[in-house]
């Protein structure tokens, strides 16, 4: 058992803490517990990435491996960043903003008389909508 502070091998048992054996370093009097390895091994991570490449969702892979879907996402993202370069856009980039959305989104007040509202038109099943104002 090596001390995490001074890396000395002169340590003795010194009681228990939360059910784990505690050790004390004779060189620097540091008290510590044995570190357990954390996380999954690389073989499991590569298997999860392979399942993702073959079309499984993050949540399905997480259930198979026994981790959270966020952990699977982090593994896939780290693999992608380490393996592939981010593509550089070629030519001119055009970004189009919807002025009405910008106007409605950044209004200080969104209710009351004379303020913009959204109204559904006759063919609302195909997503048509209009805007108007309410007069007092």
Structural write-up:
It is a single chain. By secondary structure, this protein is of the alpha+beta class. The chain contains four helices and five strands. The strands form two sheets. Strands 1-2-3 form a three-stranded antiparallel β-sheet, with no helix packed on it. β2 (20-25) and β3 form a beta hairpin. It is elongated, with a radius of gyration of 29 Å. 5% of the residues are buried. Mean pLDDT is 79; it is low at 119-125.
The biggest beta sheet, please?
A: 3 strands, antiparallel
Q: State the low-pLDDT regions, or none.
A: 119-125
Alpha carbon gyration radius: 29 Å
- Average pLDDT, rounded to a whole number, is 79
What is the string of helix and strand elements? EEEHHHHEE
Shape: elongated
Concise description?
The protein is an alpha+beta fold and 136 residues long. It has 4 helices and 5 strands.
Topology at a glance:
Blueprint lengths: L10 E7 L2 E6 L5 E3 L8 H12 L4 H8 L3 H15 L15 H7 L10 E5 L8 E5 L3
Antiparallel strand pairs: 1-2, 2-3, 4-5
Helix pairs in contact: 1-2, 1-3, 2-3
Defining traits:
alpha+beta; single chain; 136 residues; two-stranded antiparallel sheet; 4 helices; 3-stranded antiparallel beta sheet
């Amino acid at each position: 058992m090596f001390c995490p502070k001074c890396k000395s091998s002169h340590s003795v048992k010194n009681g228990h803490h939360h059910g784990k054996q505690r050790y004390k370093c004779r060189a620097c009097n540091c008290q510590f517990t044995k570190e357990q390895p954390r996380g999954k091994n690389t073989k499991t991570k590569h298997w999860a990435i392979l399942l993702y490449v073959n079309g499984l969702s993050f949540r399905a892979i997480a259930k198979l491996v026994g981790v959270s879907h966020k952990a699977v996402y982090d593994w896939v993202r780290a693999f992608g960043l380490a393996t592939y370069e981010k593509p550089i856009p070629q030519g001119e980039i055009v970004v189009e903003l919807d002025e009405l959305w910008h106007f409605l989104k950044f209004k200080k007040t969104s209710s009351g008389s004379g303020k913009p509202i959204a109204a559904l038109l006759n063919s609302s099943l195909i997503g048509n909508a209009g805007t108007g104002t309410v007069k007092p």
